[in-house]
Amino acid sequence: MKWRLTPPVVLFIQHKSKIIPPGNETGFGTSKTSAITNITDLKSSGLASKLKLPDEYKLMPETFYWLKKNEKFTNFKNIKELEKVFPEKADPIKDFVKENKITFKNPADVTKLILFCN
Fold first, then answer.
1. Contact 48, 42 (CB under 8 A)
2. Tens digits of residue pLDDT in 26-70
3. Is 4 inside a domain boundary?
4. 85: domain range?
5. By three-state DSSP, how is residue 103 classified?
């Protein structure tokens, strides 16, 4: 008999960033508009290069959460979506989030929540 010592659900955390270019002044003088260009990678000769952004550009980090349950990956970004993965634990999840002041902006909080769900 084989024993699997893996939890029923495994959490994966994906970190990405968006580069926000400076905006152009509009006709009213104070507002700025900009278009977002996503850059996924920069490769040259099979190597990745470190980029230095000009000071007027901004970097906006994003965190994505993925669960692997029954060999299937599902992403989630809030409690409602997590409750769909664990419908039988919806009420205990709500209570745990409230009691422990869980925020999805903090990966450590989400990790605690998934440990609770397992």
1. yes
2. 556 555 555 556 565 677 777 776 667 788 888 888 899 999 988
3. no
4. 9-117
5. coil
